[in-house]
Amino acid sequence: MVNRSPLYEIQNKLGAKFTEFAGFQMPIQYSSIKDEHLTVRKAVGLFDVSHMSNVWITGIDAMNLLNLCTVADVPKYGKNQSQYTVILRENGTVIDDTIFMNLGDKYMIIPNAGMSSIVTKWLNDKAKEFNLNAKAEDVSRDFVILAVQGPRSRDTLQKLTKIDMNDVKFFGCQYGEIANVECIISHTGYTGELGFELQITPSKKAEIVFNKILEAGKEFGIKPIGLGARDTLRLEKYFILAGNEFEGGRTPLEATLSWLIHWDHEFIGKEAILKQKEKGDYERLTCLECVDKGIPRHGCEIQKDGKRVGVVTSGTLSPCLNKGIAIGYVKRDLREPGNLLYIKIRDNPVKSKVVKPPFVPKDWAFKN
Amino acid sequence: MGDEVRDDLKYTNSHEWLKLLGENAKIGITYHAQSQLTDIVFVELPQIGKELKKGDELCVVESVKSVSEIYAPISGKIVNVNKKLEDAPEIINKNPYDDGWLVEIKIKDKSEINSLLDAESYKKII
């Protein structure tokens, strides 16, 4: 079954081309991916990301359940704070990456598209197993998620709310009204730009908010943005896409997410990744920039001296750099910045070099 | 756009066009094809001298999110490729029928042209 966003009709009218992603028919692009990409880097863009999931975590042990099931130091994040984290299996591999938001009376997590039932079941099973008074409830279908991203995102939303948007700090989250519609506002995103995300329920009210944001952002050059640009924007900033980068079972150490791990607490998967850490000899996610012409894609082989040394998990043409960029897993000794590797694109090994993330620095828009 | 389909060209179901130039033919992708692909960002051209059969993969055209194989509308030998596209693939978006041609082919069997679509028939499938 293919789900449609409640905003399908209005996106269709705006000229969206649609694609199916994890069982959802979502806009892949409106005008052009390049144009939408640069609009977000330089001005502001509006995304519908309703394919992402919404799960409430409630009960007196909600915090303890999240603390057990993620690598984060959950008690550290007080009311109106959120954090990006990963949920692990006992063997240390990632089930999903997610944001959790502490909303005071309960938590909301945002698992990936198509992951809501798996994550919800996992959390409820663990609550039972560890005798915790907490419950996960999948409410994905009740929410529309909008992302307003780009240097003018704050200015755009400020026109639609009484909240001082400067008070919504980086990774802050709170209830509030946008265009007189109650929603959860968070200073989060997947583009590497200043940005906010809105969780809106009931979803039929999202159409009002969507239209009002487009209207308010007009003076800043706002455009609706599809999932095509969302993917190129995140890859330039070295943000992980779970379906690609965790495919086949990867640990947070391999995915270079060790900065997320609060080692000083007990969590599922800890023992396994501790062992891996001590051993040290594991593949790590690595950034490659093409020196020669070519566009790496998911699944391309990474080679050295004609031999396979890894595989590209995500690749694209970077609209900002106008070069092929890729991330993929290789052994530690090949990750030195400047090291030359080859990415096999169709039959051609395309010369590429290891670079430090992100591919596109924070001040790119000011310099270009 | 007035030039979405041109009367003096032949077409394929897979949205290539062919322009007869005596014993040779120029080949490209149609206005419709480039508008579906949007933002063409890379073209992998074949080697000059390569011989192709009708329906073989001729070259690859990539947009930011997609990789599209372009097929030879007829059999023949590649005698020229549009080198400009290596540095400026966006020419295909701007001008798919003139500056945005892909390759020139020396036709092996002229009778194959009869199997291609004329402008009227092509208009019906887009």
Tell me what you see in this structure.
The complex is a heterodimer of chains A (368) and B (126). Chain A is of the alpha+beta class. Among the domains of chain A are: 3-50 and 143-236, 2-Layer Sandwich (Gyrase A, domain 2), CATH 3.30.1360; 55-119, Alpha-Beta Plaits (2-Layer Sandwich). Chain A contains ten helices and 20 strands. In chain A, the strands form four sheets. Chain A has a six-stranded mixed sheet with strand order 11-12-13-10-4-14, sandwiched between helices. In chain A, strands 15-18-17-16-19-20 form a six-stranded antiparallel beta barrel. In chain A, strands 6-7-8-5-9 form a five-stranded antiparallel sheet. The model of chain A has no long low-confidence stretch (mean pLDDT 96). Chain B is built from four helices and nine strands. By secondary structure, chain B is α+β, with helices and mostly antiparallel strands. Chain B has a six-stranded antiparallel sheet with strand order 1-2-3-9-8-5. Chain B has a single domain, classed as RNA polymerase II/Efflux pump adaptor protein, barrel-sandwich hybrid domain (OB fold (Dihydrolipoamide Acetyltransferase, E2P), Beta Barrel), CATH 2.40.50.100. Helix content of chain B is 17%, strand content 35%. The radius of gyration of chain B is 13 Å and the shape is globular. The interface between A and B is medium-sized, with 19 and 12 residues.
Write a brief structural summary.
Chain A is an alpha+beta fold and 368 residues long. Chain A has helices spanning 8-13, 33-42, 62-69, 116-129, 153-158, 206-216, 227-236, 242-245, 270-279, 364-367, and strands at 3-4, 17-21, 24-29, 45-48, 55-58, 81-88, 94-102, 107-109, 135-138, 144-149, 173-178, 181-186, 195-200, 223-225, 284-290, 301-304, 307-318, 323-330, 340-345, 348-355. The longest helix of chain B has 7 residues, at 31-37.
